[in-house]
Amino acid sequence: MVILNYNGAHFLRQFLPGVLAHAAGARVVVADNASTDDSLALLQREFPAVELLVFSENYGFCEGYNHALRQVESPFVVLLNSDVAVQPGWLPPLRELLAANPRIAAAQPKILAFSDPTLFEHAGAAGGYLDKLAYPLCRGRVFDTLETDHGQYDDARPVAWASGACCLVRTSIWQELGGLEPAFFAHMEEIDFCWRAQNAGYEVWYAGGHSVVHHVGGGTLPKSSARKTYLNFRNGLALLYKNSAPSELASAFARRLVLDWVAGLRFLLAANWPEAQAVGRAHMHFFQKLSYWQQRRRLAKPRLLVGQRAGTYAGSAVWAYFLQGKKRFSDLFLT
């Protein structure tokens, strides 16, 4: 298990004891992204069983994990956020799933909210999905609507993406695909990895209700952060551009641009100037690096159509949610 840490001493103190107690024989590694708090002193003082990787600079989420996994030898590696409370028995179902099927690149547990364990958590819930324009949603969470968990999504199944908050990855496929996209820095990086895995012929799974964790969420950037808005909109464009099938790219990308502009206009009308600016900067910076994204698209070799990918909604989740009032996952008739 690799926990990427940046100034997260409070989370390590709170959640590492549970991780160690329910490690099910796995090594626990903390990769520190040049923290300036007392994370390292805490780990050395209170958690001597934890292995340490100390970086000289903050590489961000993507390159932080890329650096860490180059130094960890194991057939499977858990990517685990520092603000996740694991539950007894959470790891074996994930490990058994990947061991039984060599085509599975990654799998996630059921992720519930730490603040209210009756609710699914935003970042992953019961498995990640995408609509045809690459807007992410989950079983149990569509945009800002979180469902109550009453076992309705306890079945294991293939999905579009596994949450970077907590997922088990097959190291050989991770290395084959080059890990996480470094230019993303953070946000949607796991979606990009999983989409590339599907295009390469692999599968991504939700392990079902036997594997459960609770996630605090928003530990690095709050929901209202303009920085988070910028990363989500920039990376959303890059995600769609890199991975869409050639015959579907032009139409999907044009529609995505329009919907992003509508979102920016909504921020303006709400007098939220920082987030409106964030959308504009996201688009500007994407197009400034278009040659880079073209190169990354060639490396990704996208091929699968919307209807050929697991965990994909053939319509527009934005249209369904905001204009048709379809707020729950089951309302969208996803397959």
Automatic annotation (TrEMBL):
Name the CDD domains for this protein: GT_2_like_c
Q: Which keywords accompany this UniProt record? A: Glycosyltransferase, Transferase
TM annotation in the entry: none
Carries keyword Disulfide bond?
A: no
NADP keyword on record? no
Q: Where is the Glycosyltransferase 2-like domain?
A: 2-126
**Care to name a GO molecular-function term for this sequence?**
glycosyltransferase activity
InterPro entries linked to this entry: Glyco_trans_2-like, Nucleotide-diphossugar_trans
Q: Which family does it belong to?
A: Belongs to the glycosyltransferase 2 family.
Matches recorded under PANTHER family: GALACTOFURANOSYLTRANSFERASE GLFT2 (PTHR43179:SF12), RHAMNOSYLTRANSFERASE WBBL (PTHR43179)
Could you identify this protein by its name? Answer: Glycosyltransferase
- Organism this protein belongs to: Hymenobacter ginkgonis
